[in-house]
Amino acid sequence: MAKTIALIPARGGSKGIPQKNIANLAGKPLLSHTIHAAQAAQIFDEIYVSSDDAQILTVAENNGAAIIRRHPDLAQDRSPTNPVIQECIEKQGLLGEDIIVLLQPTSPLRTAQDIKASLKLYLGHQDCHALNSVCAADNKYLYAYLGADPYLIPAMPEFAKISRRQDLPKIYSPNGAIYIFSVANFQRHQAIPDTKVIAYVMSEDESIDIDTPDDLKRAELHFSQRQRDLQ
Q1: Yes or no: domain 4-135+171-230 corresponds to CATH 3.40.50.1450
Q2: Domain spans of the chain?
Q3: CA–CA dist 145, 157 (Å, integer)
Q4: Which of 5, 19, 51, 218 gives a 20 to 30 Å CA spacing to 96?
Q5: pLDDT score, position 225
Q6: DSSP calls for 83-132
Q7: Which of 66-75, 131-140, 152-161 has the highest mean pLDDT?
Q8: Which residue, among 110, 166, 113, 115, has the nearest Cα to 142 in the 3D structure?
C-alpha cells in the first residue's frame, strides 16, 4: 500500500537570520509550526525533518517528528533541494507509488487544512505530475521589458498590445509552502516535476516566506491576529 510522507527540509547555517529554522515565532521554534500543521492534518504515515544541524534535529524530535541526518555535502548555502529529496527516498526505502509532501519550514502560516486540501486536490488529478502551492501575483509584470541595450524588448510580446490590465490573464507565483509529487515522478524527472503541475492557491498573507527579520515580524502579526480571531 502506498505511503504518504511529509518531508521538511531544515538545514542549519542560515545567514539572514541565524539558525532561522528554529528562530522564535509566536513563542515556538519556526520549524515546530510546520511539524504541528503536518501532525494536525492527520494524513501522513510519517513526518520527517531532514537536517545537518544537531539543534534542529533535537527540536524536530522534541516535537514528534522523525529525523534524517542529512549528509554535510547537502547542507551548503547553495545546496539544491532535489538531492535532499533523493537522500530521503533512499534512506527510507520509499517506492514509486509513495507520495512525498514537501513542506518548507519557512512557510509557517500554511495550515493543516491547507495540507489536507492540497493533497485531496492532487489525488483528484490522477494525470498530474505534481502540485505546487501558489499565490496570485500582479499581472502588470506581463508588460515587463528585457534589457535596454539600447532598446527595450517586451518580455512577453503577446501581451504588449493589450491596453487594459483587466484583460490580461491571471498569473501566480510559487510560495514554497507545499509541493506534492510521487516518488516515481520525482525519479523520472530527477527533480520536483515541472510539467503537468496543478496549483493550490493560497492568500498573500498565508504565503509569507521567512527570509529576513522583517518577515518574522510580519508573520508574528498574523499569528497574533489568528489568536484574536479565535477568541
Answers
A1: no
A2: 4-135+171-230
A3: 9
A4: 51
A5: 82
A6: HHHHHHHHHHT--TT-EEEE--TT-TT--HHHHHHHHHHHHT-TT-SEEE
A7: 131-140
A8: 166
Give the predicted TM-score (pTM) of the model: 0.92
Say how far apart CA 106 and CA 176 lie, in whole Å.
8
| C-alpha of 34 from chain center | 10
Place of cell 484574536: 228
Instruction: Please say if the pLDDT value at position 18 is more than 90.
Output: no
Q: Are 48 and 67 in contact (CB under 8 A)?
A: yes
Cα separation of the two ends of the chain: 42
Query: Which helix (H) or strand (E) element contains residue 181?
Result: strand 171-182
pLDDT tier at 228, thresholds 50, 70, 90:
confident
Other beta carbons less than 10 A from residue 148's beta carbon = 8
3-state helix, strand, coil in the chain (%, to 5): 35, 25, 40
Asked if 119 contacts 112 with a C-beta cutoff of 8 angstroms, the reply is no
Q: Which of 208, 196, 224, 188 is nearest to 105 (CA)?
A: 208
CB atoms within 10 A of CB 170: 8
Grouping H, G, I as helix, E, B as strand and the rest as coil, residue 175 is strand
231 pLDDT band (50/70/90 cuts)?
low
Q: Residue 7 pLDDT more than 90?
A: yes
Q: Give the residue among 168, 177, 176, 179 at the shortest CA–CA distance from 144.
A: 168
